[in-house]
Amino acid sequence: MYNIIDGNQISKVILDELKVKCSDYLKLNKKICMVDILVGDDEASKVYIENKKKKFDYVGIEFKQLCFDSSISEKELISKIEELNNDDTVNAIFVELPLPGTINEKNIIDKIASNKDVDGFSVKNLGALLQGNTGFFPCTAEGVVELLKRSNIDLNGKNCVVLGRSNVVGKPVSILLLNENATVTICHSKTKNLKEICKTADILIVAIGKAKFIDDTYVKDGVIVIDVGIHRFYEQDKKIVCGDVDFDKVANKTSYITPVPGGVGPMTVAMLLKHCIETINNE
After folding, report:
1. Rounded to an integer, what distance in angstroms lies between the CA atom of residue 167 and that of residue 65?
2. Contact 104, 116 (CB under 8 A)
3. Domains identified in the chain, total number
4. Residue 198 and residue 230 share a domain
5. Per the domain annotation, does 170 fall within a domain?
6. pLDDT (tens digit, 9 = 90+) per residue, 120-179?
7. Quick check: is 22 in a domain?
8. DSSP state, residue 224
9. Which domain holds residue 210?
10. Do 154 and 240 lie in a common domain?
11. So what's the pLDDT on residue 13?
């Protein structure tokens, strides 16, 4: 019988811990503020931001939002970020992605001061991750490792197979696992003998962006599966929400598995809040 790794429950424990820390800082007159930048008027993004704001309110971190029309130029947006970098009342800066095609996302992210880059995507923070230094690391990747550790899963010496090589999840989570003394194999769209490699995994982390791609033929008995993907679509007028893993086919072969939704997703926001509180140490 498999065990569900409940991201909702684990993230709630983390939020409660962060709430205590934030309260302690507030007693010392140390207020924490994050500015969230949204370019355009995507309704899905607005719903996500509103849900995120509720968690900030719960923990006690001030959440400010700046909304810009999609016609804003890259130069104007950079100017605003530099203004926030120099604002001592702002601890953290978060830019909602994706940005309009007229704006180079990398240029924007790299303009955020590394000590305020709580999303962890700036060159300086990614470099710190690679070198084993302190910094803010990509939230979803960090959330995956935190899920495993808080589920009392020992990573030392484990064979971990990571499907996906993005800067958002695949690459950073691989380095974080290496830092925990795991043995890591990274697979991608050009990998040969994918099924055979996946079957060597003690821990399989899937972040490939293909709905229900991984079925029971990819996993060995007793594997731990972390599904990072999320997909929403309709089948015969029924709304389907699923991950990159076909849960119904895979679950019975696992010892632990994350559901979608309610697995990795809640951990991403929890790590973002954790980073915001950690900005106090960077002042």
Report:
1. 25
2. no
3. 2
4. yes
5. yes
6. 999 999 999 999 999 999 999 999 999 999 999 999 999 999 999 999 999 999 999 999
7. no
8. E
9. 139-265
10. yes
11. 98
